Amino acid sequence: MAEAPIPFQIKSIATRQFATMESAYKEGDEAEFTSTFNFGVGKEDHLVVTLLDVSFSFNGSPFIILKIKMDFDVQPEAFDRFKSKDGAIVVPKAFLTHLAAMSISTARGILHAELKGTEFNHVVLPVLNVSEVLQEDVRFE
Question: How far is 91 from 117, CA to CA, in rounded Å?
Answer without folding.
Answer: 40
